[in-house]
């Protein structure tokens, strides 16, 4: 069974590193958020659209496992897929991978099939809950069935 991922490319900036040129651990959570929002956008559901529909998707939990350090100016790929989903919650899985040494050109974002490329640097998950603007939980299948269907299709593609 092959998996489908969204791949977002970025470069390690100087401000993200410590004196040794190593990426500070907190940046991986930011990279995961970027990967998640770009995955949603690439599937026709930018956060601005969700918010205009009265939907919010706050984080309930974030987990990160650090494997190897990213270094200044390296090319990084943030690979994102939906791990699980229901009418009220959505969980993402991420991998940050080294795609090249300092100065390596970045490619465009893309959807990929199969094992992500590059050296694994960090992996993790984030769990989210669907809420309305008054911070009350909503069942996405009732509140926005078209969004629920879209999420199911992304999830199926991610977990084929």
TrEMBL record:
PROSITE patterns on file: 4HBCOA_THIOESTERASE
GO molecular function terms attached to this record: fatty acyl-CoA hydrolase activity
Signal peptide positions (record): none
UniProt xrefs under Pfam families: 4HBT_2
UniProt entry tagged with the keyword Hydrolase: yes
SUPFAM superfamilies the UniProt entry points to: Thioesterase/thiol ester dehydrase-isomerase (SSF54637)
Ranges that cross the membrane: none
Superkingdom field: Bacteria
Alphabetic keyword roster: Hydrolase
Sections of the chain in a coiled coil: none
Family: Belongs to the 4-hydroxybenzoyl-CoA thioesterase family.
Xref: NCBIfam families: YbgC/FadM family acyl-CoA thioesterase
Protein name (record): Acyl-CoA thioesterase
